[in-house]
Amino acid sequence: MSSPLLLGAEVPDDPPAMARGQQTVAILGSGDFSRSLAVRLVACGVSVVVGSRCVKRIAPGLFPDAVELSSQEGAVVKAQRLVVLALFPEHYPSLLGIRAALAGKVLVDVSNAMELGSGVSSNAEQLAELFPESVVVKGFNVISAWTLQTGTQDGSRQVLLCSDSVEGKSEVAQLARLMGFHPVDSGDLRQSRVLETMPLRLFPSWRGPLLATFLLFLFFYAYGFLRDLLLPYLAHGRDGFHRLALALPNESLPNVALVALALVYLPGLLAAWLQLWRGTKYQRFPRWLDGWLLRRKQLGLLGFLCAALHAVYSLCLPLFLYGPNNWSISLYAVCISQVKAGVEEPWDESGVWRSDLYLSCGVLALGILSLLAITSLPTVGNVLTWREFTFVQSGLGYTALTLSVTHTLVFGWDFAFSPQAYEFYMPPSYVLAVAAPCAVLVCRCILLLPCTSTRLARIRRGWERLGKVSIPLALTVSFKQDKTSLDAGL
Amino acid sequence: MSSPLLLGAEVPDDPPAMARGQQTVAILGSGDFSRSLAVRLVACGVSVVVGSRCVKRIAPGLFPDAVELSSQEGAVVKAQRLVVLALFPEHYPSLLGIRAALAGKVLVDVSNAMELGSGVSSNAEQLAELFPESVVVKGFNVISAWTLQTGTQDGSRQVLLCSDSVEGKSEVAQLARLMGFHPVDSGDLRQSRVLETMPLRLFPSWRGPLLATFLLFLFFYAYGFLRDLLLPYLAHGRDGFHRLALALPNESLPNVALVALALVYLPGLLAAWLQLWRGTKYQRFPRWLDGWLLRRKQLGLLGFLCAALHAVYSLCLPLFLYGPNNWSISLYAVCISQVKAGVEEPWDESGVWRSDLYLSCGVLALGILSLLAITSLPTVGNVLTWREFTFVQSGLGYTALTLSVTHTLVFGWDFAFSPQAYEFYMPPSYVLAVAAPCAVLVCRCILLLPCTSTRLARIRRGWERLGKVSIPLALTVSFKQDKTSLDAGL
Amino acid sequence: MSSPLLLGAEVPDDPPAMARGQQTVAILGSGDFSRSLAVRLVACGVSVVVGSRCVKRIAPGLFPDAVELSSQEGAVVKAQRLVVLALFPEHYPSLLGIRAALAGKVLVDVSNAMELGSGVSSNAEQLAELFPESVVVKGFNVISAWTLQTGTQDGSRQVLLCSDSVEGKSEVAQLARLMGFHPVDSGDLRQSRVLETMPLRLFPSWRGPLLATFLLFLFFYAYGFLRDLLLPYLAHGRDGFHRLALALPNESLPNVALVALALVYLPGLLAAWLQLWRGTKYQRFPRWLDGWLLRRKQLGLLGFLCAALHAVYSLCLPLFLYGPNNWSISLYAVCISQVKAGVEEPWDESGVWRSDLYLSCGVLALGILSLLAITSLPTVGNVLTWREFTFVQSGLGYTALTLSVTHTLVFGWDFAFSPQAYEFYMPPSYVLAVAAPCAVLVCRCILLLPCTSTRLARIRRGWERLGKVSIPLALTVSFKQDKTSLDAGL
């Protein structure tokens, strides 16, 4: 029979004093963070004392009634153990006056770094130097006043803690858990340098992929401008510059999407080839490859974004006719031209087939990509088994890639090989774009050949070229490695 | 080195009896909730006794075999502490017969209120009056039978508990945690009045925003009907009433979206101005402003919805041609009219530019808005740092607003200033709609001027006009306040 | 006052030794899973010893420095209690040599089954037979190496554990919690058969719905092919085969969507009718009905997918004109035909109304369906009360169904009743498709009649035909049952 312990029957026979609900926490400072923290703590049944240097200056009603206001020293004295410092780091020295009272208390430093890479020691470390007789715990700085007030609807918001004192850390951890947060041990106080700069980070994992996508777009846009607008204008004075706003972006976006998707699956293939070449899996990948493997999700999502924009842009094309006063005109132009041309047998079967086909491929590819985007949502991914995840990310992903390539090829087949497409010795942009995914697909197919696939499987099961039976691995590992090499990849 | 305590090494050296897996819970009543709870508890290794007044009436197989069926009294006697009442509140008195057996037990009341604002004391409070010798704990009423059976895939579903007994509450909390729920202390038994009405709530936070959006739509629809359909009909007998179904909604929706977006960013600006005017941040905002600040997310999502519908509607316009039998007709009409008109040089450059431009702006604005909508998903928001959140909600949000305004202005520029647009002295509806976002953007720009922005930053750092150095705040606070004033806003 | 116990003040007055951070865990095997686990444990402040048969073969830097490498026996000896086996199950016997050292330890089996339904005893059970003096705990096999390394952003990833030893299970559970996972007790070691095959599952709950949707599509596609392409070709040699790629799928998809939506709401109605007929709710539904009720969410999402694809396809239709070189042609063809036809008064009011109307209905239906799809995301659903959920899934769901039906009927009204639509005695496909949802809507309306609805409400409140006052149920139950019967249904 299974035990309630398992999910936390954490009631000691004799609950310690603080567990009986008599815990008192002091907060120094009376700003938003202080207020929000006080509100939350009171709601969780903890008694709170707010210490301020000039209590009378605090507007009435700023804090809930249950909160006691007092001088800084008074507050610290009332606190059993925990004293939260909601002050500017630069004001920490002003507390030296009450150093005696602070001795033996746990000082919780919630401050953030001013700027990235300030290099020197962190606020928390400086605080620890100032008050050697107190225990300093760094934490809560990644939690916003807002989150404190509203609480986390799914009680799964992480609070990173670090300290040199195990006991101090665990006491603060309890408080965090008490407030419905999920405390995570981030090691000793040195880690505070990382923790303090965390809130300053701005999408670190998106930097690279965003840059890559942007450069790709820039390249294809410039290429298209040169090939389709500038050169024709110089050569024949053909003026198509109005295409800069809509048509040209709409030609560049799908190319970006294609290359981005290729970049999602390339690193996985490189990793596989590397393992095949080395004949073992017990050497780490080069740093750049590891980094790339970790950025596939972002690359994939950006590729999906481009594809979606392309779709919407394309669907806008007919709207063009409804532009303020162009609808009739362009239409008219066409009719007249046709009448002049006096076409005889205007219906071309293959043309119809092609346009139908490439539209279908495009729609389906986008549909599958959106499924991939959905499964990359945290919660959705969480409920998938590794096999499901592999199926979605690898199986569906390659299907989407194949469809996109087909979409492109079917669209531009006879353009690609008509001589007048190379008037300026520049191939159409999609010819360049489609090269990368084609290469990826070919590599993938080679890996699927029995000779390579079996060898790769053996390597991933721990076999080495040396032929010795290697350190055995759980079968799960090989698969999980597989998932790893696919995880987070669209 | 850090301590396992941190994430819960909750095994006391001598685990209490109930923790050894011999815990027995009694459930009175044999309905769906009773059954689901029994199934879940058995799965978690707790032995369950279901007490019913006529056991023989229970269909065989209704409960899992591990569940023991017995009389109500028998069940209560077998239970160590916890007795879950899965009964109608109106049947609580029927338990007075076994009051002796219930004495000293923890009675868990899972019932809900019949209707909102019943005013009088809650079911749980009445229960507590009936059985003074028992401990009454309110809880689980926000959990559905369904959730009980299926469990929560991410084990993060909250269970709100309240009681006057700390011990009772903690025992029920263990049971909740044992079942994979996340217990939350909601205070003493008086809170049960709130808890019981909770399941009756129907999107309280969406009421206001929905009403506002609906009224806006109503206004713009009526305005458009009057200006574009009714008056022209009365004046010139022009019959355009078929536009009621598609064209008119499609004109109203973008206006609603524009105003809604403006309403998202207005309160933040008001708050800033208020702080500037007061010269301090230590006074609370008026209640209505607080409420408004808390509704920005909903307003933004509704605005996004309108914008998306507008996009789809617009993309449907060309489909109109494919209507059962209108395609050829309208087209033909156009051609003929053109032929009659015998236009000479029909191509107008600026027109093409404009239509391209406003389509691009529209697409991009919608794209950015959908990014904002995605980041407003709980899990996605959870993994963002405050700076990332601010960047997305404020930076991208204002970009989207600017793009939407451009989209509107470029679209309707020369209509706005052509005299025949004012035949009935009524400006085009989008002229009205675009006013609000323009005002917002202007205010925002003024706030960005050095003079105001530095002053505002100082105020948010705790500085006051009085000039005294105020109570210092952690730097984090000013930023987090910043986030607060942006959080949940699209 | 409420108690911190509630959310886990799990610090016993005298924390046990392992809780003081001196815990040492041994991992046997040096594969990816071993490495990832080691990395994670070290990060959480646990000291790790990796045991391998040939330590020197392990590439330097493969493991973090904090990890101690040693022989298998050495590692086991150093471990206090927990020994994780990251080996192939087939190598378990190779550990018999160090059976003495393993005695009294907790062996954590993380392996997966090779294939589904291997029938015989699980790896964990075989391990337990091999090492009777050790405690065997099954767990972590659903966690991938990837998840171990990156950790779960919301600390809510479940770890299923099973064992015959309560203590062993609870110790492993602590380790899991320590790493930020959410341990779940899955019973005794027999359950390991289920746990081991879990990672091999591939969307079990999606199988049925996917098959149903696929068959529906196949049927409608074949039907359309026969009716619109093959027979006309054979009869009149009309060649429309180019419609296979785009037009025909676009006609089949909405039909599939309609029927799928009908299948979502049908089981709920069947359940209600069954209860009415039986006159009681205390009999279980037949197995097939239960299964169907549990698959509604998937059916609904697939129906939504089809509807969305249909929308995109339809929006692509005008693009058809922009096909490589068909734009002008088809247009021209139309104009010419018109000119030849020499239509007199080409504008037909009703036609315009209809096309406007069915487009509006379609757009709105899709909009509502997407709202439903969003609320079926785990996190979004989690924050809804049962009443909100019911409102969304039932209220909005039926609205969407009604709109889709209207969309179809308005579209095809006069086709449906024109004789030439029945040339081959086959009704248009949408006539078949619309039948199911119409039936559902009618049944629903009948259920809403006072006579049936009141009776159903009484039955769901526990009333039985026998007339006896039945076992009372909490009012919540009737509603929650209601939600159950709607939950997960689009």
From TrEMBL, chains A, B, C:
<feature type="transmembrane region" description="Helical">
    <location>
        <begin position="430"/>
        <end position="451"/>
    </location>
</feature>
<dbReference type="GO" id="GO:0005886">
    <property type="term" value="C:plasma membrane"/>
</dbReference>
<dbReference type="Pfam" id="PF01794">
    <property type="entry name" value="Ferric_reduct"/>
</dbReference>
<keyword id="KW-0472">Membrane</keyword>
<dbReference type="GO" id="GO:0010008">
    <property type="term" value="C:endosome membrane"/>
</dbReference>
<keyword id="KW-0410">Iron transport</keyword>
<dbReference type="GO" id="GO:0015677">
    <property type="term" value="P:copper ion import"/>
</dbReference>
<feature type="transmembrane region" description="Helical">
    <location>
        <begin position="208"/>
        <end position="226"/>
    </location>
</feature>
<comment type="similarity">
    <text>Belongs to the STEAP family.</text>
</comment>
<keyword id="KW-0967">Endosome</keyword>
<feature type="domain" description="Pyrroline-5-carboxylate reductase catalytic N-terminal">
    <location>
        <begin position="24"/>
        <end position="112"/>
    </location>
</feature>
<keyword id="KW-0408">Iron</keyword>
<feature type="domain" description="Ferric oxidoreductase">
    <location>
        <begin position="256"/>
        <end position="392"/>
    </location>
</feature>
<dbReference type="InterPro" id="IPR028939">
    <property type="entry name" value="P5C_Rdtase_cat_N"/>
</dbReference>
<dbReference type="GO" id="GO:0046872">
    <property type="term" value="F:metal ion binding"/>
</dbReference>
<keyword id="KW-1133">Transmembrane helix</keyword>
<dbReference type="GO" id="GO:0008823">
    <property type="term" value="F:cupric reductase (NADH) activity"/>
</dbReference>
<keyword id="KW-0274">FAD</keyword>
<dbReference type="GO" id="GO:0006826">
    <property type="term" value="P:iron ion transport"/>
</dbReference>
<dbReference type="Pfam" id="PF03807">
    <property type="entry name" value="F420_oxidored"/>
</dbReference>
<feature type="transmembrane region" description="Helical">
    <location>
        <begin position="299"/>
        <end position="322"/>
    </location>
</feature>
<dbReference type="InterPro" id="IPR051267">
    <property type="entry name" value="STEAP_metalloreductase"/>
</dbReference>
<keyword id="KW-0813">Transport</keyword>
<keyword id="KW-0285">Flavoprotein</keyword>
<keyword id="KW-0479">Metal-binding</keyword>
<keyword id="KW-0406">Ion transport</keyword>
<feature type="transmembrane region" description="Helical">
    <location>
        <begin position="256"/>
        <end position="278"/>
    </location>
</feature>
<keyword id="KW-0560">Oxidoreductase</keyword>
<dbReference type="InterPro" id="IPR036291">
    <property type="entry name" value="NAD(P)-bd_dom_sf"/>
</dbReference>
<protein>
    <recommendedName>
        <fullName>Pyrroline-5-carboxylate reductase catalytic N-terminal domain-containing protein</fullName>
    </recommendedName>
</protein>
<dbReference type="InterPro" id="IPR013130">
    <property type="entry name" value="Fe3_Rdtase_TM_dom"/>
</dbReference>
<dbReference type="GO" id="GO:0052851">
    <property type="term" value="F:ferric-chelate reductase (NADPH) activity"/>
</dbReference>
<feature type="transmembrane region" description="Helical">
    <location>
        <begin position="389"/>
        <end position="410"/>
    </location>
</feature>
<keyword id="KW-0812">Transmembrane</keyword>
<feature type="transmembrane region" description="Helical">
    <location>
        <begin position="357"/>
        <end position="377"/>
    </location>
</feature>
<keyword id="KW-0186">Copper</keyword>
